[in-house]
Amino acid sequence: MPQPPNAIALLTAVHREIDALFEQFEVATPERQLALKAPICAAIASHQALEQQVFYPAVSAVLDTAELIDVAVVERMTTEFLLEHIADPAMSPEMLRAHMTVLREHFAHHAEMEERQIFRRVRGSDLDLEALGARMQAFVARPGYLV
Question: For the chain, what is the domain count?
């Protein structure tokens, strides 16, 4: 039986999957952009749930990452604000593109901060990344997880 990916590999893969969705959105027609809105928003919301409910609590238990985690929490609140506005069915195609541009930039910043700062510290810790990866895979396998 193949071994589950470690926690960092799993989150990095999700970051790339979400970025690929944004790539599709960027070159899509307005009709296709409208169709991509829900999958992008769902993928980001699911990713945030995985981090908030599984990854960050495990990291906080072994590392003093309070400042980084606090930044991530504020980023999550900003993302939720954007997702709430993007969900508006009356949003014009132009405003949808504008909101998605900001959301993409915001998500890219989040992924970069996580990969360069948090992951680096986690790699140097005693955290069992394989066990955490297995817990995260179990979370992802639950009904309703969308990435």
Answer: 1
